[in-house]
Amino acid sequence: MRIPRTPPQTHKMLRDMPLENFEKIFTARIGPAPDGAYRHWDELIYRDPPEGLNRREWWLAIKMARESMSHPLPLKDTNGMPLGYTMPDAVLHGVHKIDQLASGRIAVSEVVTNPATRDRYLITHLTHEPSSAPGSRKLCNSLKAA
Predict the structure, then answer these.
(1) DSSP readout, 2-29?
(2) What distance in Å separates the CA atoms of residue 119 and residue 141, rounded to the nearest whole number?
(3) pLDDT tens string 83-119
(4) Number of C-alpha atoms within 13 angstroms, CB side, residue 75?
(5) What DSSP string runs through the chain?
(6) Cβ neighbours, 10 Å, residue 136
(7) What is the C-alpha to C-alpha distance for residues 58 and 49, in angstroms, rounded to an integer?
(8) DSSP 110
(9) Is 30 exposed, middle or buried (0-12, 13-18, 19+ CB in 10 A)?
């Protein structure tokens, strides 16, 4: 597995960018996950940026959108910068899908849900699994006799 390319550093892009380019970035209204996909710089550089922006400006707009909704973590990266995570709609949708597919399901036989066979099923199981409660054996034996 190859290591992804390191994205441009946000603070350097902000420092080096001409002032007039900021208006383009802020008015482009770029979200944290363009086209509904949360992409890394390594993948984004192969895509066409929105009209009027170059790839670095597009990345900066995405990074700023992500930063605005970032949740800090008590961790730092290898450069000592604080780490955080972002949960844009695309990520929340993916987490929801995982939650749905990973949850258990309770399946009940039609014998139990069908009104015509439900009572017979319950009585049969009561007689096969007597509890330890006083008098339950007597009740089960009387149900078997019925």
Answers:
(1) PPPPPPPPHHHHHHHS-HHHHHHHHHT-
(2) 17
(3) 999 999 988 998 999 888 877 666 667 766 777 776 6
(4) 7
(5) -PPPPPPPPHHHHHHHS-HHHHHHHHHT---SSGGG----HHHHTTSPPPTT--HHHHHHHHHHHHHHT-EEEEEE-TTSPEEEE---HHHHHHHHHHHHHHS------HHHH-HHHHHHHHHHHHHHS--SSTTHHHHHHHHHH-
(6) 13
(7) 6
(8) H
(9) buried
Neighbour tally for 19: CB within 10 Å: 6
Q: Tokens 């096969």: give the residue.
A: 128
- Note the Cα 54 to chain centre separation in Å: 30
Mean pLDDT estimate for the chain: 82
Distance of CA 6 to the CA centre of its chain: 25
pTM for the predicted model, two decimal places: 0.62
pLDDT for 137 beyond 60:
no
Q: Contact 38/70 with Cβ under 8 angstroms?
A: no
Tokens 């009940």, located at residue: 108
Task: Read off the tokens for 120.
Answer: 């017979």
What SS3 class is residue 30? coil
Q: Of 59, 52, 47, which is closest to residue 13 (Cα–Cα)?
A: 59
